[in-house]
């Protein structure tokens, strides 16, 4: 049902795009992609680092086995790579199976924050560390390329680093995680510090020759099952969609300042392309109009424990079996994940990721927009 809805929407938007004026825009002919982020785009780094393991039913809808992704199938980054006719990104830390990095590399890690990790952080691979990993990756690639052609099919060429697309989807954990120890006012006051750290990372990449930046803002974290379960027990704390109002207010404020930073970078780096993508609006619209968009459950988790209304228990994650209150229980998947927006209470289902991706690719949620690139949608594989 969700797939049919997406196809209809894409076809409609293609026809509408013929009426839109051409815009200054990016072009989807990148030879390689370098991605930085958290679990929304992690294709296996945290699992490859040995910090966490993922059990079935993770991966059930597409890979048919856990793939290092916190999802039943593909992530937004997977659909975007497909749209650019590029292979899925291998995780930087995945050393088994002779991964090819010629068309790109993924540095995103589940639990990552923009701010430096603390001793109690879930993930040590904060944004600054991911940028440092990229710098190490680039230096090592150039060393190997200088030794001859035997590594060529596995590594990007030197010019790919300047021509490639640098994608970012990070900040959700800085906002959502802060609510466990800070007030809303304290979180709002911390946003400039968070974004200063992000700007520093962008500058380091620019100084290394990066010129094409694609920046996702953060989604409506107040609508994540985990946050509704923890912070939404008082109905007065929820909005009309059943989402935690304070969390979404923080996300909106973060996004306003991230957008302003993106505009600043657009003016500062005149030889670069900086594209800001409004993920918040897409995801908020999906949740507010879930039924019209082909979904049946906007907030309840597909894979979890506890049953309706949320099917989420923070003590047991998707696929795990634990003893709770003296009984052995398992967080199981639902019968049809395409009916759900939330996969495990924190991350989206493949169906929801596909919906979000189809909206991103219209170009109308981006600044600058890229509506003149709509014909490439005809090549979509999903």
UniProtKB/TrEMBL annotation:
Stored InterPro entries: GDSL (IPR001087), SGNH_hydro_sf (IPR036514), SGNH_plant_lipase-like (IPR035669)
Record keywords: Glycoprotein, Hydrolase, Signal
UniProt GO molecular function: hydrolase activity, acting on ester bonds
Residues making up the signal peptide according to the UniProt record: 1-25
Transmembrane intervals: none
Family statement drawn from the similarity comment of this UniProt entry: Belongs to the 'GDSL' lipolytic enzyme family.
Protein name as catalogued: Uncharacterized protein
Organism: Rubus argutus (Southern blackberry)
């Amino acid at each position: 049902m969700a797939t049919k809805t997406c196809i209809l929407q894409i076809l409609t938007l293609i026809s509408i795009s013929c009426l839109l004026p051409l815009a200054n825009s990016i072009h989807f002919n990148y030879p390689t992609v370098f991605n930085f982020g958290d679990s929304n785009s992690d294709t296996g780094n945290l699992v490859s680092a040995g910090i966490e393991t993922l059990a079935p039913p993770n991966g059930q809808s597409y890979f048919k086995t856990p793939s290092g992704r916190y999802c039943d199938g593909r992530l937004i980054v997977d659909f975007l790579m497909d749209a650019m006719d590029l292979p899925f990104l291998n995780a930087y830390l995945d050393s088994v199976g002779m991964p090819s990095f010629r068309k790109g590399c993924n540095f995103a890690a589940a639990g990552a924050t923009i701010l430096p990790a603390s001793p109690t952080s879930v993930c040590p691979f904060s944004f600054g560390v991911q940028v440092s990993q990229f710098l190490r990756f680039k230096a090592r690639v150039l060393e190997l390329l200088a030794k001859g052609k035997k590594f060529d099919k596995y590594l990007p060429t030197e010019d790919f680093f300047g021509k490639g697309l640098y994608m970012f989807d990070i900040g959700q954990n800085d906002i959502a995680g802060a609510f466990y120890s800070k007030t809303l006012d304290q979180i709002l006051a911390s946003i400039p510090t968070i974004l200063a750290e992000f700007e520093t990372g962008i500058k380091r990449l620019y100084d290394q020759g990066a010129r094409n930046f694609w920046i996702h803002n953060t989604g409506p974290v107040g609508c994540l099952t985990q946050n509704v379960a923890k912070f939404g027990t008082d109905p007065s704390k929820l909005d009309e969609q059943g989402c935690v109002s304070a969390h979404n207010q923080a996300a909106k404020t973060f996004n306003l300042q991230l957008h302003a930073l993106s505009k600043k970078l657009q003016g500062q780096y005149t030889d670069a392309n900086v594209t800001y993508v409004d993920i918040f609006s897409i995801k908020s619209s999906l949740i507010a109009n879930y039924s019209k968009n082909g979904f049946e459950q906007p907030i309840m988790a597909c894979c979890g424990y506890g049953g309706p209304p949320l099917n989420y228990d923070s003590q047991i994650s998707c696929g795990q079996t634990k003893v709770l209150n003296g009984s052995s229980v398992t967080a199981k998947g639902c019968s049809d994940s395409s009916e759900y927006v939330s996969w495990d209470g924190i991350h989206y289902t493949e169906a929801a990721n596909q919906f979000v991706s189809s909206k991103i690719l219209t170009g109308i949620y981006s600044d600058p927009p890229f509506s003149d690139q709509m014909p490439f949608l005809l090549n979509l594989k999903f």
